[in-house]
Specification:
This protein has helices spanning 18-34, 47-53, 74-86; strands at 8-13, 37-42, 59-62, 65-69. The chain is of the alpha+beta class. It has a 4-stranded mixed sheet with strand order 2-1-3-4, covered by helices on one side.
Length: 87
């Protein structure tokens, strides 16, 4: 029996980020649909991440690839999840 790949989505965020909360809420139905796992990372807990993404949060990675920052294009995100799901 073949299993589908596990899809991990990483959301680089920080406390009080309204765009981050908006992106997370927008992604939630698609993450459920594709069985993807969300990993949230607070950039303020790591100096390197804070330096990389300070003014760019939210930053969203699908696996190892950055797929969005600031705002999420849901149609594009769906296509990216479909490609990742097919492997």
């Amino acid at each position: 029996m073949e299993t589908s790949p596990e899809i991990e989505v990483t959301l680089y965020t920080r406390k009080g980020c309204h765009l981050c909360a908006e992106a997370k809420a927008q992604m939630a139905p698609l993450l459920r649909e594709f069985g993807a796992r969300l990993r949230e990372v607070d950039i303020d807990a790591d100096e390197t991440l804070r330096a990389l993404y300070d003014v760019d949060v939210p930053v969203i990675f699908l696996g190892e690839r950055k797929v969005a920052k600031h705002r999420l294009d849901l149609a594009q995100f769906r296509r990216q999840l479909e490609r990742a799901f097919r492997g």
